[in-house]
Amino acid sequence: MNNQVIKVVKFGGSSLADAGQFQKVADIIKRDEARKFVVPSAPGKRFSGDTKVTDMLYGCYGIAEMGGEFLSMFEQIKERYREIICGLSLDYSLEDEFDTIQTNFIEKAGRDYAASRGEYLNGLILARYLGYDFIDPAKVIVFDENGRFNPEKTNEILSKELKKHETAVVPGFFGATESGRVVTFSRGGSDITGSIVARAAEATIYENWTDVSGFLMADPRVVENPKPIKTITYRELRELSYMGATVLHEDAIFPVRIAGIPINIRNTNAPEDAGTMIVPFAEAESGSIITGIAGRKGFCVIAIEKEMMNAELGFGRRVLQVLEDNGLSFEHLPSGVDTMCVVVNGKELEGKKDQVVNGICRAVEPESIAIHEGVALLAVVGRGMRNAKGTAAKIFRAITDASVNIRMIDQGSSELNIIIGVQEEDFEKAQRAIYAAFVK
Ligand code: ASP
Which of 46, 188, 283, 286 could pair with 249 as two cysteines, CB 3.0-4.6 Å apart? Predict the structure, then answer.
């Protein structure tokens, strides 16, 4: 075990979009000497309407791959980095790196390679600016030949490597196969790298610095001025992220969860804010039963009715088989004695409705089957719900008082969340009503 306090800090694209942001980042890092390992994203948007370097790289490589004239676009990418270097008054040049990348684009090194150069170059500048070592993720973040991330091998190699460095920058978003082919995570994947580095470093905490002061209890576009969430458990966060809370990449939770390391979401532009702590376990905060509300539109409910359904062996399996045969996964499955509802993603069902309905009719011969479209799901999440009586009643009273019709109810077996289906046009109204009922 490690007794030293080590903090792994990840900075998102908007935190490193230009020289001014780099200075803020360096100030934050230098303020605490436990901040030893830094994971940067590629330069993000400097203002609304700006383009992220990652998107420029995808675009530029797309042209190169077709044999088109990509140099003028590549020049714009180089300019973004030159501006940062110049703005920081660094005596440093990336021109040789640019030449290598250009050659590799012509030789069609791959889309993932192209996108990864955004964090690679940003990492080189940041390491230089901080006076930290640079670790190339292609040597320490391991993917298999099918492009799947190998967590155990990575942890073995990376933890050994980190021990050789007092302080280091490890760019986010990518790694490589053992044969050296660069592979990226999905978009927003630097969050995952940060988590992987935190695990390998046996960090005390993983700080994820972004441009908001953590998670809010509800969507600020729907609820006016929602309160910030101080503490949330990994499991609660999974529920909220699935429903659309998007501050952190979903897969970033797994590596630190294995090691029980908390994540602290912080704001580079308001470093004094405490942000949100994401922890393995937590007592419910006094006075608050719910942790947050999130929701998504665009679901369809397939409602099936058949008397004595409960006694029919294999009923559910046959219904789900029809979905599987049509390449559909289900999101929720609330059921009654003689009814079964299958909630699916509306987009995925498009163009397949008749096939699915006919398939279910053949498979289980229901008395009735209907598809309700335009359903929104709302998840009310909170570790405090398990011990609080009357939470469900309070939610339904609030929704009913707002004259919203409830289409579906589903409580997860962990009693961590209650999911409510409403018509899409009632989505905002229902969310505001629940928030007002619980948050004073
Ligand atoms: N730069 C990558 C993206 O834009 C990865 C990241 O920022 O996490 O998705």
Answer: 188
Residues with a CB atom less than 6 Å from ligand 1: 13, 41-42, 52, 54, 118, 172-173, 187-191
pLDDT value of position 239: 86
| pLDDT (tens digit per residue) in 122-138 | 999 999 999 999 999 99
Choose one of 190, 211, 247 to mutate for the ligand 1 pocket test, by most ligand atoms within 8 angstroms of C-beta: 190
* Residue 245 clears pLDDT 80, i.e. is over it: no
C-alpha 44 to ligand 1 mean position (Å): 8
CA distance 185 to 175: 8
pLDDT at 230 over 80: yes
128-142, 184-198, 266-280, 334-348: range with lowest mean pLDDT = 334-348
Q: Which range, of 83-97, 148-162, 269-283, averages the lowest pLDDT?
A: 269-283
Task: Report which ligand 1 atom has the smallest distance to the Cα of 193.
Answer: 8
Distance 112 CA to ligand 1 centre (A): 12
The minimum-distance atom of ligand 1 relative to the CA of 42 is: 1
Ligand 1 mutation target, pool 11, 15, 39, 52, most atoms within 8 A of CB:
52
Measured in angstroms, how far is the CA atom of residue 311 from the centroid of ligand 1?
A: 51
Q: Which of 119, 122, 187 to mutate to test the pocket of ligand 1 (most atoms within 8 A of CB)?
A: 187
Residue identifier of the C-alpha nearest atom 5 of ligand 1: 188
pTM of the model: 0.86
Distance separating alpha carbons of residues 7 and 162, to the nearest angstrom: 13
Distance 297 CA to ligand 1 centre (A): 25
Contact 51, 45 (CB under 8 A): yes
What average pLDDT does this structure show over 299-304?
A: 94
**What Cα–Cα distance (Å) separates residue 150 from each residue in 37, 156, 260?**
21, 10, 19
Q: How far apart are CA 391 and CA 46, in angstroms?
A: 43
For the stretch 39-62, pLDDT in tens is: 999 999 999 999 999 999 999 999
